[in-house]
Design brief:
By secondary structure, the protein is α/β, with parallel strands linked by helices. It is built from 12 helices and 14 strands. The strands form 2 sheets. Strands 13-12-11-7-10-9-8-14 form an 8-stranded mixed sheet. Strands 3-2-1-4-5-6 form a 6-stranded parallel sheet, with helices on both faces.
Length: about 350
């Protein structure tokens, strides 16, 4: 019987319960927790009935030296992801990194290179790729049921208010977070890029801060994306929806197929039309229907299962560090286009969220 991998969690904030639940569901051996606020660790030990003797650290470097975990999940503020990831890789730990994988092209490239040199598996935590709805849609893409892709659209119409930003000072800052697109919208932006079947060639965008004068970054972004295969993408992301989250939707339009995934976090198939008539649309929509308790969905558990299998069988995880970089790069290209007022070509050689410091100060 395979000995469970020894697991450590760095960062015990808002998203950490999903990682703890996924680790428990996959029978990982909890080795350590780390957070600069000890009360956050104690809260998770009690709520999730973790072993009372689980080791707790306020310094992740000390954790890495003393525990030497097989797998680490990084769930800190986004601006710390890259340095923690590089230190974990140097220590030989495999990684699941919460989105975004980093906040600059330079840091993302450093993670990818270091992981390759060390032989460490790194997965970007884009868990919505594991939604039942998304897996079904991706299967149709892989089987070329859409024919030629024409265009797709990602809409993220959510609400984030003062209480959300007041709970953590790093949120909405250029140095540690970015705005709505980098934080709330990057999952669906990743899905749009992944589904459209071509690399991004060019982006033209507008961003603005319309309703959150207490943060540094944007609360609205709209973008037009051109892919290398001739298809187009539309992105609309905002945290200004009154009075609560409305929807997260993904549309795909091809010469032989039309699909819409909706719900709070693209967890439902709401339209399923293909010329090949290989399946019954009503049955597909009924069978690929999930109602998660929150916008994080159910994808963390299968993502963890995939990463564990990748480690044990020495293969790449389904969602790689490169995937994480490409999603982040698209957001950075949107920021750059909006700031410069002109289309931006990809790939980006250099770009970081901090390049846009002061963007909305005037």
């Amino acid at each position: 019987m395979q000995t469970p991998l020894r697991f450590a969690l760095i960062g015990c904030g808002r998203i950490s319960p999903n990682h703890i639940a996924a680790a428990k569901a996959n029978n990982l051996a909890f080795a350590a927790l780390c957070d600069i606020v000890p009360e956050h660790m104690e809260d998770k030990v009690v709520k999730f009935e973790l072993p009372e003797n689980i080791r707790r650290y306020t310094d992740y470097r000390e954790l890495l030296r003393e525990v030497q975990p097989d797998l680490v999940a990084i769930c800190t503020e986004s601006g710390l992801h890259a340095q923690i990831a590089l230190d974990c890789i140097a220590a030989g730990s495999h990684l699941i990194i919460e989105k975004p994988i980093a906040l600059s092209i330079k840091d993302a490239d450093a993670i990818i290179q270091a992981a390759a040199e060390k032989g460490v598996k790194v997965s970007a935590c884009h868990q919505n790729r594991f939604n039942k709805s998304i897996l079904k849609i991706r299967d149709a893409v892989d089987k070329r049921r859409f024919g030629r892709m024409f265009h797709g659209a990602a809409h993220i119409r959510w609400n984030r208010g003062w209480e959300y930003y007041d709970r953590a000072a790093w949120r909405g800052t250029w140095e540690q977070d970015g705005g709505a697109l980098m934080n709330q919208c990057i999952h669906n932006i990743d899905l749009l890029r992944w589904m459209m079947g071509g690399e991004v060639e060019e982006v033209f965008a507008y961003t603005d801060r319309l309703n959150h004068d207490y943060i540094e970054a944007e609360d609205l972004g709209v973008a037009l994306v051109r892919f290398s295969n001739g298809a187009y993408g539309l992105i609309e992301g905002t945290t200004n929806i009154y009075p609560r989250n409305l929807e997260e939707t993904l549309y795909l339009f091809g010469e032989k197929g039309t699909v819409k995934a909706g719900g709070q976090s693209v967890n439902l198939i709401e339209e399923w039309r293909f010329s090949d008539a290989l399946d019954d649309a009503e049955q597909v929509m009924r069978e690929h229907h999930e109602i998660p308790p929150n916008v994080y969905g159910f994808g963390h558990t299968p993502l963890y299962a995939d990463v564990i299998d990748a480690i044990l069988n020495d293969r790449e995880p389904a969602v790689t560090a490169l995937d994480g970089k490409l999603a982040m790069e698209l957001v950075l290209a949107i920021y750059k286009s909006a700031a410069e007022g002109k289309p931006v070509k990809l790939p980006l050689k250099e770009c970081a969220t901090t390049d846009f410091t002061g963007r909305f100060d005037s």
